[in-house]
Design a protein that fits this description.
It is built from eight helices and seven strands, in the order E-E-E-H-E-H-H-H-E-E-H-H-H-E-H. With 238 residues, it is an alpha/beta fold. The chain has one domain: Ribosomal Protein S5, domain 2, CATH 3.30.230.10.
């Protein structure tokens, strides 16, 4: 058994995010198209003689990064330790390149990579769908970070279906100096929609056709995000 495992995990963007009406359980049903992009975090999980879980980080995006159980990678390790009765201490090191609070699944990616790393480190033999199910306990974006590529997410975003995508694309990402919290954006979305009839979430046929054809121009025209008005309302500089 190796003493450490390194997993490289990409960030993501949403080519489409369709948000349905607020439900009685406090969540919104969504339909989204995830796309992995070539900005990566490297997550190293090592066995250590020190009991418990120990988290550290290097890289560009360490400001305000928590190192306790509010960090998704830490919580992912907690779940894996509990589920599989792992007695060894674990040292988790994050080399961060994915921006925080930028909608690129920076925290979720680290959680997904931690699950994959622990599975490999202890030869647990988990199938991908089993790891995605564990990831869904942590957040709606985590299952996609385990599968990667291009995929549709439904439910809360955690139900993953791969999508045929041809060609490659170059993306221009303009990052703000500060992020927005997801709950705040959804709350603002609800405020802006108050009194309106909100349709169930759906995936654009034109976007799927553009992906399958490898048509960058058509894909650009089909991009959409129902949370954009709310984000711009909270932060007009966007």
């Amino acid at each position: 058994m190796p003493s450490s495992v390194v997993v490289r995990v990409p960030g993501k963007i949403n080519l489409q995010l369709s948000v349905g009406p607020l439900q009685g359980n406090g969540f919104h049903p969504v339909a989204t198209v995830f796309q992995a992009v070539s900005i990566f975090d490297d997550v190293t999980v090592a066995i250590t003689d020190d009991p418990g879980i120990h988290l550290s980080s290097t890289g560009k995006h360490n400001d305000h990064l928590p190192f306790d159980r509010t960090n998704l990678a830490y919580r992912a390790a907690e779940i894996m330790v509990r589920k599989f009765e792992i007695a060894d201490g674990l040292a988790i090191s994050l080399a961060k390149e994915i921006p925080l609070a930028g909608g690129m699944a920076g925290g979720s990616a680290d959680a997904g990579a931690t699950i994959v790393a622990i599975d490999s480190l202890f030869s647990l033999g988990l199938k991908r769908n089993e790891m995605e199910k564990i990831g869904a306990e942590l957040g709606a974006d985590v299952p996609f970070t385990i599968s990667g590529g291009t995929a549709i997410g439904t439910g809360k975003g955690e139900q993953i279906t791969p999508v045929l995508s041809r060609g490659s694309y170059s993306w221009v990402l303009a990052m703000s100096s500060s992020g927005l919290s997801t709950p705040a954006v959804y709350n603002e979305c609800d405020r802006l929609r108050e009194g309106l009839q909100v349709s169930p979430p759906h995936i654009s046929d034109s976007l799927l056709h553009a992906l399958s054809a490898g048509d960058a121009v058509a894909l650009g025209k089909a991009l959409s995000n129902d949370l954009q008005p709310a984000a711009c309302s909270l932060k007009p500089a966007l």
